[in-house]
Amino acid sequence: MAADDEPLTDQPECPSAQGGGLLPPELRGWMLLLAATGAAEQRLRAVVKERLDVSHDEFLVLCLLAEQPGGTGSLRMSRIAELLGRPKTRLTYQIACLQHAGLVTRKSACGDKRGIEVALTDKARRLLTEASDALAETVKESLVRFMGPDQRAALCGLLPGLAEER
Predict the structure, then answer these.
(1) Which residue ranges does the record annotate as region Disordered (predicted)?
(2) Per-residue pLDDT averaged across 6-33, rounded?
């Protein structure tokens, strides 16, 4: 770990992690989750650009497609927009960029001429497989750096590799 990657031991934990404020535990937990994921997202942007040569938002589309059951790697554009909370017009641009890079294909959805289905290409699958260890490590390091031990313990059910740190 580089010096700027060291855990922030000389700084207090995120104020939302300390409690004692006006917020109920659910909102306090939500604020902590936002702070931690925001920190991870900032560090992940550079790794995503370096390893996959796509934007963070395009990376999120690739991740959604990669996690489809049965290895189909496809979803309707309307569902992607819904899951990511993105306007369909912005998603159309992102899909076009991914298609131009050879990472996704688009086709009319079966039985619905208006619907568009997006699928991963073999190139995207290969790049995601090659980059996944570095991307996962970036997320893990970010969470270790920006969350205290209690908060990391609470996340271990979702991110089992986090338990191995410190």
Answers:
(1) 1-20
(2) 64
Write out the two tokens for 65: 């497609």
User: pLDDT tens digit string along 69-110?
Assistant: 876 778 999 999 999 998 988 899 999 999 999 999 998 877
Contact 117, 108 (CB under 8 A): yes
Report the CATH number of the 23-164 domain.
1.10.10.10
Which contacts (CB < 8 Å, 24+ apart) does range 42-48 have? 42/142, 43/138, 43/141, 43/142, 44/135, 44/138, 44/139, 44/142, 47/131, 47/134, 47/135, 47/138, 48/131, 48/135
- C-alpha torsion sign, points 70, 129, 132, 48: negative
- The better pLDDT of the pair 164, 52 is held by 52
- State both tokens at 31: 């604020």
Q: Is 41 buried (19+), middle (13-18) or exposed (0-12) by CB count in 10 A?
A: middle
